[in-house]
Amino acid sequence: MASTQSIADASLTGTPIAGGERTADTSALYQSAQIRYRHELVGNVKIFYREAGNPTAPAVLLLHGFAASSFMFRNIMPVLAERYHVIAPDLPTFGFTESPARGMYSYTFSQLATTIGQFTEQLKLNKYALMVHDYGAPVGWRMAVANPARITAIISQNGNAYEEGLGESWAPIQTYWREPTQENRAALREFPTPESIKWQYLEGVSDKSSVAPDGYTLEGLQISRAGNAEIQLDLVLDYASNVAMYPVFQDYFRRHQPPLLAVWGKNDPFFLPEGAEAWKRDIPHADIHLYDTGHFALETHAKEIIPVIRDFLDKNVK
C-alpha cells in the first residue's frame, strides 16, 4: 500500500498511486477529501462534528477520548474519505460540542453513549465501522452492545476493554472509585489541567519534538473552560462503570466476532499493550499492532498507522 503522503497527494492531484485503482477525476477526489464542519442538535446537546466523503459510501464513525476531540482525526479523515463516509463528533463537554452545565445533563458514560447513539440515528447511520480511542471506547462498546448489527468493523487506538490493560497510572483513580470522598476527589485535581494533558501527549514518546503542540494546547484551553474540570472528575468517577461492564463488552466480542484491529501505542501509561493482546482470547483473528509511542499514537505514527487502518477497512467493509 502506498504511504499516507502519497495517498493524500493522489487525492488532490488525481495521480494514480502504486497498486491502487485511483480515478483521475481530480474534482471528485478533492470534494470527497474535503472536511465539512457541522452541528447536530441532540436533545440539549449541540454536537459539533467533522464529516468527509460520499454519504452513500460505507460509514466510519470516529470516537475520540480524553484529552482529545475530533481534532485528533484530522490526518486520517482525508485519506479514509476517498472510499468511506467519515464522521467524527466531539463528545459532550469536549471540543466544540456545546453541552449543558453540570447538573443539567448527566455526565456519565451511559448518557454519552445514549447521546452519540441518537446522533447516529439522526444522521441515519444505520451501519458503520467504529474507530475508538480512550473514552470513545466504552462509549462505542455500549453502542455496539445495544445495536450489534450496526457495527461492521472495529478499530481501537488505545481504547481498552480488559482489566489487563489498566496501567499503574489508574491507582489514584481506583482509590477514588472505592472511596468517592472529597479528599480522594481533591487528590485528582491535577488530572483535568493543561499541564497534565500535555504530559499525556508526551509521555512514552521517545522523540518529543515529533508531537505537534496544537493538540495538547487546544485541549488545554478546552479543559480550562468554567466548570469543565468538575465534569471531567465526574467522568473519572463514572469510569468505574465501564470496568464493571468489561464482561458484557467481552461477551459482545465473543458472540459477534466483529473484525477488529488494534493500533496501540505500547508506552501508554494508562492502557497497556496487554489490553490490546487480550482481544485474541475473544476474537482469535483480531489484528494487533503495537507502536513505540504513547497514548496518542496518531500524533507521532500517523504515517505508519493510517495505511494499516485503510487496508483493514478495505478488507472488511464493503
Describe this structure in words.
The chain has 318 residues and is an alpha/beta fold. The protein has one domain: 3-Layer(aba) Sandwich (Rossmann fold). Helices cover 43% and strands 15% of the residues. It contains 14 helices and eight strands. It has an eight-stranded mixed sheet with strand order 1-2-4-3-5-6-7-8, with helices on both faces. Strand 5 (128-132), helix 5 (136-146) and strand 6 (151-156) form a beta-alpha-beta unit. Helix 4 packs across helix 5 and helix 8 (194-202) runs antiparallel to helix 9 (213-223). The radius of gyration is 19 Å and the shape is globular. Residues 1-24 have low confidence and may be disordered.
Count every beta strand, where a strand is a DSSP E run of 2 or more residues. Answer: 8
Could you spell the SSE succession in H and E letters? HHEEEHEHEHEHHHHHHEHHEH
The CATH architecture: 3-Layer(aba) Sandwich
What fraction, in percent, of the residue positions are helical? Answer: 40-55%
Q: Give the total of domains.
A: 1
Number of helices: 14
How do the strands of the widest beta sheet line up side by side? 1-2-4-3-5-6-7-8
CATH class: Alpha Beta
Query: Outline, from the CA principal axes?
Result: globular
Strand content: 5-15%
- Give the end-to-end Cα distance, rounded to a whole number of Å: 18 Å
